[in-house]
């Protein structure tokens, strides 16, 4: 699945390539090759895309064709470009690495460790009382067999009402309750993606989504998110959909995991229209939609723009409430929900009734619980940002308007080395390459603000200490990406 980057698009991504920090008197072609390598290492320029013809790029960058020819030669020699005469040049990595992501992302039970690998909050205080109240509700269900493949109607009604309140009219027949969002994604993929089907995902993205796609042997293409601005490049994203016409696209428009980006309304509308035109189904993961901070105004749900049942929305209670509850859902058309329920019977029959009753109780108290979560997350985010500014001032971090993660741009391609060193110092980290497909993203680290402020501050102190140790041991330079098998 190759797509083409046009000269003007690459020019925009390259930005001020001729004035990059650290550049002294190197010739233009060396700087240009270095800047393209930087885009590849950051995952903004995906692997396997065709670069513009030399003449086209020269015109877009207003440099001589000789400069571009020499830069492409340099990139071929360093193993970042494959060229075939008459056919063009494709991006690649030295050694032809393509790294399989196991996607395994489970926190381990090590109490001495500050776990910044897992982006999830502890349960809210209201959970225990909701569980007690649910136990009292349970006798209403005990007279039946207890199998509800689409979920108990009370919960489907509460979830549908929440969508309707967000401006997306929804009936309980359009909701199917699942055992968490991951389960929802897996079910949707079983139904919508044939084995080996093509999928477009953001890069970076949520590792366990990559694992679910790997289980379907999906052919995955990526859309590289920028760290600055709104993250998505409308031109490139819509261009990829039109060119590659993937079977399915998986997007996280609200406080994207890991970058924290929020997709603007206008792009949502264009993505839905383009997906329809290119025959692509959209799976929209709204895991973080409730966790808006700073009073930020929310764009409408992506499915608002859907006129053709192209959008399947998945969401759940793990992030705003508690991961241990294992409640998620799918919002789709009523016939799609029926098909999903039929597929589900072959997987796990139905979800636990008691847990769904706990969810109903919690949703009845949503306003109080979620606003307390937002206050908690705001304070923790600000403590983490302050600690980073004080201890690691060279790192670049954007303040996200919601969600639970910061996506830090480090002062070198050191994320995996740093994660290994931090583990020794009692901090578990999620290095950038875990969120990509091909071992790139070494200059990035995801930092969740889901732990109490004092723990976050202590974690940053430990990370800063080992950061400078790494400098003493090894000079960061371009290195082959670490293989995660
Ligand atoms: C974007 C995204 N989708 C899905 C999940 C999985 O959610 P659940 O625990 O409800 O299965 C997560 C959890 O981190 C997530 O960040």
Summarize the structure.
The chain contains 15 helices and 14 strands.
Task: Supply database-style keywords.
three-stranded antiparallel beta sheet; globular; alpha/beta; 12% strand; 14 strands; seven-stranded mixed beta sheet; 485 residues
Description of the molecule:
- With 485 residues, this protein is α/β, with parallel strands linked by helices.
- It contains 15 helices and 14 strands.
- The strands form four sheets. Strands 4-10-9-8-7-5-6 form a seven-stranded mixed β-sheet, sandwiched between helices.
- It starts with 6 loop residues before the first helix and ends in a 12-residue tail after the last helix.
- 47% of the residues are buried.
- The chain binds pyridoxal-5'-phosphate.
Rounded Rg: 23 Å
For the largest sheet, list the strands in their spatial order.
4-10-9-8-7-5-6
**Annotation field: number of helices:** 15
Structural class: alpha/beta
Question: Order of helices and strands, N to C?
Answer: HHHHEEEHHEHEHEHEHEEEHHHEHEEEH
List all distinct small molecules, including ions and cofactors, that are bound in this structure: pyridoxal-5'-phosphate
DSSP helix fraction: 40-55%
Q: Residue-averaged pLDDT, rounded?
A: 91
Global shape: globular
How is the biggest beta sheet arranged?
7 strands, mixed
């Amino acid at each position: 699945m190759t797509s083409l980057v046009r000269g003007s698009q690459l020019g925009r991504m390259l930005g001020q390539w001729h004035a990059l920090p650290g550049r002294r008197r190197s010739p233009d072609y060396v700087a240009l090759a270095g800047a393209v390598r930087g885009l590849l290492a950051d995952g903004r320029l995906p692997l396997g895309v065709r670069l513009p013809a030399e003449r086209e790029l020269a015109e877009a960058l207003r440099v001589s064709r000789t400069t571009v020819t020499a830069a492409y030669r340099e990139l071929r020699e360093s193993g970042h470009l494959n060229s075939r005469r008459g056919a063009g040049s494709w991006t690649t990595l030295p050694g032809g690495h393509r790294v399989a992501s196991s996607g395994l992302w489970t926190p381990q039970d090590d109490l001495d460790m500050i776990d910044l690998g897992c982006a999830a909050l502890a349960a809210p205080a209201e959970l225990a009382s909701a569980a007690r109240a649910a136990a009292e509700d349970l006798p209403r269900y005990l007279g039946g067999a207890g199998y509800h493949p689409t979920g108990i109607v009370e919960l489907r009604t509460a979830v549908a009402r929440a969508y309707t309140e967000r401006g997306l009219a929804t009936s309980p027949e359009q909701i199917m309750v699942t055992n968490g969002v991951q389960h929802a994604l897996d079910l949707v993929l079983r139904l919508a993606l044939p084995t080996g089907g093509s999928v477009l995902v953001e890069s970076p993205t949520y590792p366990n989504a990559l694992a679910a796609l790997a289980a379907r042997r999906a052919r995955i293409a990526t859309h590289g998110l920028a760290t600055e601005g709104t993250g998505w490049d409308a031109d490139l994203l819509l261009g990829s959909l039109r060119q590659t016409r993937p079977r399915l696209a998986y997007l996280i428009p609200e406080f994207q995991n890991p970058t924290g980006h929020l997709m603007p309304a206008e792009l949502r509308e264009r993505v839905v229209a383009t997906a329809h035109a290119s025959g692509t189904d959209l799976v929209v993961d709204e895991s973080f939609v409730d966790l808006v901070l700073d009073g930020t105004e929310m764009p409408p749900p992506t499915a608002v723009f859907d006129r053709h049942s192209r959008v399947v929305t998945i969401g759940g209670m793990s992030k705003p409430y508690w991961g241990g509850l294992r409640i998620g859902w799918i919002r789709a058309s009523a016939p799609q929900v029926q098909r999903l329920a039929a597929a589900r019977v072959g997987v796990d029959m139905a979800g636990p009734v008691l847990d769904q009753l706990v969810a109903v109780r919690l949703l009845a108290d949503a306003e109080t619980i979620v606003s307390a979560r937002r206050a908690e997350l705001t304070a923790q985010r600000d403590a983490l940002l302050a600690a980073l500014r004080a201890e690691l001032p060279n790192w670049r971090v954007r303040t996200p308007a919601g969600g639970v993660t910061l996506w830090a741009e480090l002062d070198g391609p050191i994320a995996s080395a740093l994660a290994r060193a931090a583990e020794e110092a009692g901090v578990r980290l999620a290095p950038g390459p875990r969120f990509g497909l091909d071992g790139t993203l070494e200059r990035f680290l995801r930092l969740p603000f889901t732990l109490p402020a004092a723990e976050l501050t202590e974690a940053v102190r430990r990370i800063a200490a080992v950061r400078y140790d790494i400098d003493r041991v090894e000079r960061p330079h371009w290195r082959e990406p670490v293989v995660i098998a």
